[in-house]
Specification:
The structure is a homodimer of 221-residue chains. Chain A has 221 residues and is an alpha/beta fold. Chain A has two domains: 2-78, Winged helix-like DNA-binding domain superfamily/Winged helix DNA-binding domain (Arc Repressor Mutant, subunit A, Orthogonal Bundle), CATH 1.10.10.10; 84-195, Rossmann fold (3-Layer(aba) Sandwich), CATH 3.40.50.720. Chain A has helices at 8-27, 34-41, 45-52, 67-78, 93-105, 137-143, 158-167, 194-220, and strands spanning 31-32, 59-60, 64-66, 84-89, 109-115, 125-126, 129-132, 148-151, 172-175, 188-191. In chain A, the strands form two sheets. Chain A has a seven-stranded mixed sheet, sandwiched between helices. In chain A, a hairpin with a 2-residue loop joins strand 6 (125-126) and strand 7. The longest helix of chain A is centred in the last third of the chain and has 27 residues, at 194-220. The radius of gyration of chain A is 22 Å and the shape is globular. Chain A starts with 7 loop residues before the first helix and ends with a helix. In chain A, 37% of the residues are buried. The structure holds a DNA duplex (24 and 24 nucleotides).
DNA sequence: TAGATTGTTAATCGATTAACAATC
DNA sequence: TAGATTGTTAATCGATTAACAATC
């Protein structure tokens, strides 16, 4: 499971493979060929085989891939078989949504604690987890072996909290704040910039409209 | 503003440029060169100039780019200057987070309505918007000129609702359900698969650990 | 004018697709 | 064995970076 040398593009696609294999598993499908998976996922069979072979040969000539086996192997590659302790900083709607969701999905992600600065939220219990103030953040991280922090706080507060997280030895930040965080090389930051996603959507809607308008114009000529 | 021929990679980067220009604007910076922006954003100056020149020449030799002008132009390209009416289907924590956020950001996105199937939520008012049942979804879309629907419902219900949205003439779906939607070519789907984001995070944390373990091993030899 | 910096062409790099021998 | 399908190499395609003439 050598982590290096795997391109960003491949890693981006892995979770999607995992999801489709999970669906196949639920449907009771035992084996699948790259060709059939390619039709379902709307990617080329070549790409599927290339991607998987970054991590080893999981298939068998003339047979294809065993769904359960491949599913488990990708799970291992993604590290979903290991336990990840996480905390959520910012316990508003987004923080609570993530708490529900991370526990729900269960695959190795455990919400150990939730934090907020709002006194109205502190003390409230979400999915069995009590919301705490951020004063003892560092102690909590160390005592509970927390690896991942989800950051769902305003961008103005994010850099300061990120620094505290890093100092406390956090391994990764799941960043929902609308700002790029500056952290050491050995701390992973995974950004979810919803505003940027919405802007891309906007762009695509507009360019679709322009395209249609163009077509009409051409037809009328 | 020709929508076609622009590569996906460029579109992905546009909102980030917009965000950095917004920050510069707040800092009171009037002009910026691709070189200086490159240092801030940690991308190559070449890439910045190439990206921008997909849409026209916004700069001036020997001077650089006027921050306010470039900010506005990218806003236009992204379609943020136009008004987008949106609805949110699924009014749980995630739906409410989006409602707060979309109104908050204001840049042309207006939450016209919120929907849910849960009777406990129906009738509740979030940021001045009342949560409705999904019975009259289609009428609401037509009457309110709704272009975008955010889908924050379980994956089991998503395909059915997506079909209804498409039939009602929606232009785009902001999809938070953990499933790929099957819609006609002229309907835009922008996916936010949080589970996949979390898996990528997990992968990167694990491969970082493996990398470190490898380094220690090598040092000890 | 001289210096700075763009816009744009050319070179490089990496990712995707095609092809096919290996093999179950 | 014959057919199917992988694993893998080679070919193509596209995106990024470098270079530099144009020009403010």
């Amino acid at each position: 499971m050598e982590g290096k040398g795997i391109s960003r593009a491949v890693i981006e696609r892995l979770p999607r493979y995992y999801r489709y294999l999970g669906e196949l598993l639920e449907e009771g499908v035992e084996r699948i060929s790259s060709g059939e998976l390619s039709r379902r996922m709307r990617v080329t069979a070549s790409q599927i085989r290339q991607d998987l072979n970054n991590f080893g040969g999981f298939g068998q000539q003339g047979y294809g891939y065993n769904v359960k086996y491949l599913y488990d192997e990708i799970g291992k590659i993604l590290g979903i078989d290991r336990q990840h302790n996480l905390i959520i900083i910012g316990s508003g709607n987004l923080g609570q949504a993530i708490a529900n969701y991370a526990n729900f999905e269960r695959r190795g992600f455990i919400v150990k604690g939730m934090f907020d600065v709002n006194p109205k939220l502190i003390g409230k219990v979400v999915r069995g987890v009590e919301i705490m103030g951020v004063e003892n953040l560092e102690d909590f991280i160390v005592e509970n072996d927390v690896q991942i922090a989800a950051l769902t706080i305003p961008k103005t507060k994010a850099p300061e909290i990120a620094d505290r997280l890093v100092a406390a030895g956090i391994k990764a930040i799941w960043n929902f704040a609308h700002i790029d965080l500056d952290v050491p090389d050995d701390v992973v930051v995974e950004n979810v910039h919803l505003s940027e996603s919405l802007m891309r959507l906007s762009y695509r809607v507009c360019s679709m409209q322009d395209q249609k308008a163009g077509e009409i114009k051409r037809t009328q000529k």
